[in-house]
TrEMBL record, chain A:
Keywords: Chemotaxis. This is Chemotaxis phosphatase CheX. One of its GO terms (biological process) is chemotaxis. Residues 59-132 form the Chemotaxis phosphatase CheX-like domain. InterPro entries: CheC-like_sf, CheX-like_dom.
From TrEMBL, chain B:
Pfam families: CheR, CheR_N. It comes from Blastococcus haudaquaticus. Residues 1-273 form the CheR-type methyltransferase domain. This is protein-glutamate O-methyltransferase. InterPro entries: Bact_Chemotaxis_MeTrfase, CheR_C, CheR_MeTrfase, CheR_N, CheR_N_sf, SAM-dependent_MTases_sf. CDD domains: AdoMet_MTases.
Automatic annotation (TrEMBL), chain C:
SMART domains: REC. The modification 4-aspartylphosphate is found at D52. This is Two-component system, chemotaxis family, response regulator CheY. One of its GO terms (biological process) is phosphorelay signal transduction system. Residues 2-119 form the Response regulatory domain. SUPFAM superfamilies: CheY-like. The keyword Phosphoprotein applies. InterPro entries: Bact_response_regulator, CheY-like_superfamily, Sig_transdc_resp-reg_receiver. PANTHER family: RESPONSE REGULATORY DOMAIN-CONTAINING PROTEIN (PTHR44591:SF3), STRESS RESPONSE REGULATOR PROTEIN 1 (PTHR44591).
């Protein structure tokens, strides 16, 4: 049977679910909360109060590729990222932290949070290796689930954001 | 209001006495965070006020909850695995041989907390005896309504399923729901969870073939221990089996039990005519 | 007892290493599956390998399959330690030959509990 391009393919893409239909803020909060308690320390609670991120923040993220495609992005101040690294490494932390140490530890926290976010989404999906630097831009503000928390009084933002822009119609 | 020094010291002393774990000064916030849910469950909005009320009116169950909240993050599935090994290797074969094919076996998991123990038993039985879900029923009791609700839901966090649950059993008996793991429906049907205060007259239940009453008696004084053991015995079949915690015994408490060695574990059986 | 810890994150290698050393293990690390195989090829055969899933060069699932396909490495217990946490992923890892599976995030107690299940707690710790 021959099918005429009736826009089926485009509709299939348009029909991709938005993240807000797949996961809610309390789930992201509980995933992040468990990661902090287990990895950072058993008393390390995240308090769901938004704070102002510093002007020059650092982000760590992993990409999720599957029925929903996007990134799980952790953003915080550079000093907070370094403190997080020390807390994660505990007694194994080197006296002088290199940027590489921070990138590695912060990236691993993104991997842990991202892996668990991925598992709460419809699958099968793949998970990328973590990346650290300036956060990928939010493509579609409707395809975003973001939580803002305080850790040791410092702001941390966790956003689950779609990779797709609102698709421009092709003519 | 923050935790008073008196309240903190009392909690430290209790935890040290029952678990030998030392809570260092500076852990006040930990005590606050862990005890607040227990206080709220009892309708008390503040931890210091809650601690004061327990100090003034001693309550073994409260003490147990406080110690557990401060000493264990999550209950393990095969916590001290030997009493579970004993169940499948010795106890169940003996009971299945002694009972008729249509007789339902009844197991009681007392002070079952969030449900790891009753579901561990349910999984083991489903994996080891035919028609387990119809042959065995498991009663899970806890004093806390919140724990009973959690047990009924049969849902566990990622951190909880990481604690001593073998991966093959996780994939066989659980499905993932959002960020949690849910026990399979047939196993949930096998387990009935109800509120029950062990230190008061017990509701009509049983008769039980097997009772798990682990790490509970240590929190009670001698007369209460004796009363609990007597009440438990009244709910057991004459050829039933009782499992206590590794540090607990009926010896010197209640002489109407016979201690038997089962593999690497000990069980207690009602003495005939006692 | 010996353990090999394979994870592309140095921080995670340090964390798992510290837990295992605390239990009495002698530990070596590797940054991906290929490096892990190199350690085994050297003849350093551990009782336990803790291996992440997502890594560059060779991922944990490929590593598990490679170890399982070599009969002389049959004595090694393989435990995946990863943030991959879907039911289907755990099934895949077990089917490939992993014995146990620890989901990140985990606590030190979680590793210890799993080793107890596997009979891999060094004796003095188990008592």
């Amino acid at each position: 049977m021959t099918t005429i391009d009736s826009g089926e393919r485009r509709r299939a893409v348009d029909a991709r679910p938005l993240i807000t239909e797949l996961i809610d803020a309390p789930t992201v909060e509980s995933i992040a909360g468990e990661a902090w308690i287990a990895l950072v320390g058993e008393d390390e609670v995240l308090i769901p109060i938004p704070g102002d991120l510093p002007v020059d923040p650092l982000s760590a993220w992993v990409d999720v590729v599957g029925p929903w495609t996007g990134s799980v992005v952790l953003t915080t101040g550079r000093r907070t990222a370094a403190e997080l690294t020390r807390a994660l490494l505990g007694p194994a932390a080197p006296a002088e932290l290199e940027d590489e140490d921070v990138a590695d530890a912060f990236g691993e926290i993104a991997n842990v949070v991202g892996g668990n976010v991925k598992a709460a989404l419809p699958g099968p999906s793949g998970l990328s290796l973590p990346d650290v630097g300036d956060a990928p831009a939010v493509r579609n503000p409707a395809d975003l689930c973001r939580i803002d928390v305080l850790w040791r009084g410092q702001p941390v933002a966790i956003s689950v954001q779609g990779a797709l822009p609102a698709l421009p119609l092709t003519h | 209001m923050t935790l008073t020094t008196t309240s903190f010291d009392w909690v430290r002393a209790l935890v040290h006495k029952e678990s030998a774990i030392v809570l260092q000064p500076g852990k006040e916030y930990l005590v606050e965070a862990r005890l607040l849910p227990i206080a709220r469950e009892r309708g008390i909005p503040d931890v210091s006020q809650f601690v004061d009320s327990v100090r003034n009116r001693p309550d073994a169950d409260c003490n147990r909850r406080i110690v557990e909240a401060l000493t264990t993050n999550e209950t393990s599935w095969f916590r001290d695995g030997d009493p579970f090994t004993a169940l499948t290797s010795t106890v169940m074969p003996a009971l299945l041989a002694a009972r008729g094919p249509n007789e339902r076996l009844q197991i009681w998991s007392a002070a079952s907390s969030s449900g790891q123990e009753p579901y561990t038993i349910a999984m083991l039985l489903e994996d080891s005896i035919p028609n387990a879900t119809s042959r065995v029923s498991i009663t899970a009791t806890d004093l806390s309504r919140e724990m009973v609700t959690r047990t009924k839901a049969g849902r566990f966090s990622q951190l909880e399923v990481n604690r001593g649950l073998p991966a093959p059993m996780l994939v066989r008996h659980f499905t993932r729901v959002g960020n949690e793991w849910e026990v399979a429906a047939p196993l949930r049907r096998m387990v009935t969870a109800t509120e029950c205060n062990l230190a008061a007259p017990l509701p009509r239940m049983g008769p039980f073939d097997v009772v798990y009453l682990r790490n509970v008696l240590i929190y009670f004084d001698l007369p209460t221990k004796q009363a609990i053991l007597r009440r438990v015995r009244d709910l057991m079949r004459p050829d039933g089996w009782l499992f206590l915690g590794a540090a607990e015994t009926t010896l010197g408490v209640d002489d109407s039990w016979e201690r038997v060695v089962v593999g690497r574990s000990s069980a207690y059986r009602p003495l005939k005519g006692a | 007892m010996r353990a090999l810890v394979i994870d592309d994150s140095r921080a995670m290698r340090r964390i798992v290493t510290a837990i295992l050393e605390g239990l009495g293990y002698e530990v070596r690390g590797a940054g991906h599956g290929r490096e892990g195989l190199d350690v085994l090829d050297e003849g350093w055969i551990p009782e336990l390998v803790c291996v992440d899933w997502n890594m560059p060069v060779m991922d944990g699932l490929q590593f598990v399959s490679a170890v399982r396909s070599n009969p002389s490495w049959r004595s090694i217990t393989l435990m995946m330690v990863t943030s991959e946490s879907e039911h289907t992923q755990i099934v895949r890892a077990l089917a490939a030959g992993a014995h146990e599976y620890v989901i990140k995030p985990f606590t030190a107690d979680a590793i210890r509990d799993k080793l107890a299940l596997l009979g891999l707690l060094p004796q003095e710790v188990a008592l």
